[in-house]
Amino acid sequence: MTETKQVVFEVPDERTPGYLRRMKNLAEFQKAQKSAIDEVERFEKMCSFLADYVKEPADPEEAREALMEATKEQIDDLFALISGRKAQVPPSNGESLETTTQ
Fold first, then answer.
1. For the whole model, what pTM was predicted?
2. Rounded-to-integer distance, Cα 54 and Cα 15, Å
3. Could you tell me if 2 and 101 are in contact, meaning their C-beta atoms sit under 8 angstroms apart?
């Protein structure tokens, strides 16, 4: 059985309060990724970092499962939005990502 789950991200832009905090969190995440030796630890840290931007589903386990089903392109696009490398501004109701689980 194939089930489609939708993850809605809320990615603030540089005009949203807390910009420096978000950039600090991104820098800390990148530093932790470089120093992590274990690949599983890297994936766990990535899911934890991205979870801060998940608006829906509200349940952390459902959000994590949907993140794990994302494509590389979807994750790359999300990081580009978070880091400001992607100029596209998500709609005010959030950027959505649909993933399929079996």
1. 0.68
2. 19
3. yes
Buried b (16+ CB within 10 A) or exposed e, 49-66: bbeebbebbeeeeebbbb
Dihedral over Cα of 101, 89, 60, 30: its sign: positive
Please, which residues have CB within 8 angstroms of residue 73's CB and are 6 or more apart in sequence?
Answer: none
Which parts of the chain fold into alpha helices (H)?
Answer: 19-35, 39-51, 60-68, 72-83
Sign of CA dihedral 30, 32, 38, 42: negative
Gap between the Cα atoms of 2 and 18, Å rounded: 39
Tell me the average confidence (pLDDT) per consecutive run of 10 residues in the chain, 102 residues long. 70 86 90 85 87 86 85 87 67 47 40
54 SS3 class: strand
Count CB neighbours of 17 within 10 A.
8
